[in-house]
Amino acid sequence: MAKVDFYFDFLSPYSYLATFRLARLRNEFGAELAFHAIELEAAKEAIGNTRPAPHLLPKKLRYLKADLARWASRYNAPLVFPETIAHFDLKAAARLNRGFICAARRGAAEPYMNAAFSSLWASGREPNDAVLKEVAAKAGLDPTELAAGADAPDTIAEYARENQAAQARGVFGVPTFIAGDQLFWGNDRIDFLEEYLRDPNAAVHP
To answer: Which of 30, 34, 149, 155 gives a 20 to 30 Å CA spacing to 161?
Structure first.
């Protein structure tokens, strides 16, 4: 069984869309998935990518919405683009990511991940304290306990280590999948990941 590391940020709609391919990776390719919530902006900054986010560029935003709609249609995935994305509270978004770490400790990584992505991208919600607690409840966890855990020093330290480890492995964006020594960035590159899982001799070494 091949291990595949999946790096995501709940603020990334393409990470959300990539989750619709996870069952296939398991069922058809025997992948053992490991999940990593990281901060997209930190990964970008680590390689000097300081360009404005697409939602701050009107023409690129229009294209982004169309592209997301096309992928959502292909996956039959519900998608509601939050119109207030430019005003998202990034600290609240980081808490949502750190909450994933707490959920994973309690054996609820995927239920939490799916609930968080659904809240932001299937329902168009903003990341905030209320959403964090709702996501915890949907994952079968105590909302107050998880919210406190997301702000605990050990969780903050573990989140920092996750980001540093991701950057050390060459992760510069999300979604990113790593299998063996092969890195696949983007929801639109999962086909290449599947080719590699089908035949590791398809590995590319630039």
So the answer is: 30
